[in-house]
Amino acid sequence: MKTLNSTPKKDGFRMPGEFEAHKGVYILWPQRPDNWRNGGKPAQKTFVEVAKAISQFEHVTVGVNDDQYDNACQMLPSNVEVVEISNNDSWIRDCGATFVKNDKGTLRAVDWTFNAWGGLVDGLYFPWDKDDRVAHKMAELEHVDRYRLNDFILEGGSIHVDGEGTLIATEECLLSKGRNAQLSKEQIEEILKEYLNLDKVIWLKRGIYNDETNGHVDNIANFVKPGEVVLAWTDDKSDPQYEISKENLDILENATDAKGRKLKVVKLHVPSPVLITEEESKGVDAVEGTLPRQEGDRLAASYVNYYTANGGIVFPTFNDPMDKEAEKTLAELYPDRKIVGVSAREILLGGGNIHCITQQIPQN
Ligand code: KQY
Question: Considering the domain 3-362 in this protein, what is its CATH number?
Fold first, then answer.
């Protein structure tokens, strides 16, 4: 495996849309007690459900720290591959590699620097050194060359692409002080264009209300296919989410993509506010440097944080009346895929959701 000095754009590699075919998906196993309640036990059960749901559609590899290796092997079904990948936490969408592909079907990995969503400015835990090596290890496991960006911080959950030259991201996240504060918006856009082979970046403003990632796009909007975007929505004007979603709706409805198309925007309603209970809060260890989980805090619940698998959509449910509505909307958006809901409160309690705990490998 080589580390390359060129860029994907110069070499003719592009990031495919998530809706394109996959070779498989990676997940990391949850365990840290200052993020996951009760020593990670409830979250581990939910991660098993996510792995089972996705494994109906494509190969699933779960990376695990050594001290949880036997436990993960025992809890996961035998069609799921378990490998040792040291990590600080289980958000492989963010610390894992972003894969790019050329028209011969060769894959390469883009290995961004990871700093736990804001480093020492407003990062969510310390340290993050093992997480920052996860992308390199994925490139090794997949036997692909990689591009490493030592001076550019990015998480996979902060970008979505249409595979045809367009990217969506939020200013709240990509222009945040804890990431690439030394770079201008134009310089950030140039780096994205070079490393993902893009022609156009559509800048949304903010992500889901109270999202601790500084508003990752993967919780608020996604490309269903080129020319079509799904947007987290509420009709409740008294909810702070309304203004955020409306601002993004206006941007998307007035945008054109890299091919000059107007976008079709479909609304996916958020559930009622999901708050941390006293019991849930008490189950999380308090650790200096880790974002605390306080009773009553509103979690960043959104159905948009779903995973698009080969022939399937695996979406989070919240035991909310909107779960059914979300399933219906997703079924209309993806008529050729099976829609599978997984009860995901335990992932949400950790600060993200199903999309955040997955990273696909494109089909080569
Ligand atoms: O949503 C994500 N992409 C990750 C959230 C990280 C939360 C750490 N507590």
Answer: 3.75.10.10
